[in-house]
Design a protein that fits this description.
The protein folds into 2 domains: 2-154 and 317-336, NAD(P)-binding Rossmann-like Domain (Rossmann fold), CATH 3.40.50.720; 168-313, Dihydrodipicolinate Reductase, domain 2, CATH 3.30.360. It has 13 helices and 13 strands. It is α/β, with parallel strands linked by helices. The longest helix has 21 residues, at 316-336. The chain has a 7-stranded mixed beta sheet with strand order 4-3-2-1-5-6-7, sandwiched between helices.
Length: 337
Amino acid sequence: MKTVKLIVVGFGTIGKGTLEVLRMKHRDLLEKQGFDVRVAAVCEIDGSIVNDKGINIDSVLKAASSGKLKEHPDWKNAKSLEAIEVVDADIVLELTPGDIKTGEPGISHIKKALECGKHVVTSNKAPIALRFQELTGLAKKKGLKLRYEATVGGAIPIINLYRDNLEVNEVRSIYGILNGTSNYILTKMFEEDVSLQTALKEAQELGIAERDPSYDIDGTDTAVKLVILANSIMGKRISYKDINVRGIQEITTESLELAKKHGYVIKLVGDVNGMEVSPRLIPVNHPLNVSGTLNAIMLDMDIAGTLTLVGHGAGKIQTASSVLADVIDILKDMKEL
């Protein structure tokens, strides 16, 4: 059995979810494929838990739940960049929150990992949206994998699906709902005739919306994901600044009621060909009319025609599903070497 070591950078919601799923699926999935996957380091902003033989996942999750990571026996003062460089590992999971203005600290983490000969899997949208060509080019130069399925659509396997099964197609357009928070709010407003603020407050109480929901409400999150899809699937060379973005702040109960009378709903839609994110009228019987936190993404292709993917676009377990799918993809390539 081949031993493979991971470094987890960023131990927030996605990091914890990834370790929970890894613990759950290790024996059933990974070991059956011939891999003993160990976590060699878990890096947080002020230090790291490091054990070259493999960290006990239960102990790390328990320490995190009680806010006592620093009391873990394997705690070190090594910051993430240092840990990426010195810890013996095969794959770095870059799971930190993204800053769309700078892309940091994700860009530095990804570059350091690739420069040190480590494959990378990331859920961090900002580096992939801002430095797609640079980072994928560096990975190719180093003969390494950079995987980022978890940056778009939660558990929806859109990037890997295209790469593994649909690459014979020319994708003519990508169009869809890419943000579960805004979709939940619009669904709530439409179905229960409540204001945006009322729907937003409930979303925050349920943990669907962040305390500062601006990235979701103003369309930034959708635009970032749109850029990633455009570059990775359609071969475009665009950045966030190329997208015209308008969010849902001005949507009222009156506008939704008017749409309803004419057989429409209003959804926040990302449109690659239009280079735009904006609220749009969608017929009630249209495939994009999905409710709650669901995402729906339509690909129009020259051979396969139109394909619509629907699924949960957020959540720690759903995103962890995509993170570990990318890990397994890398493991399969390592197995063939």
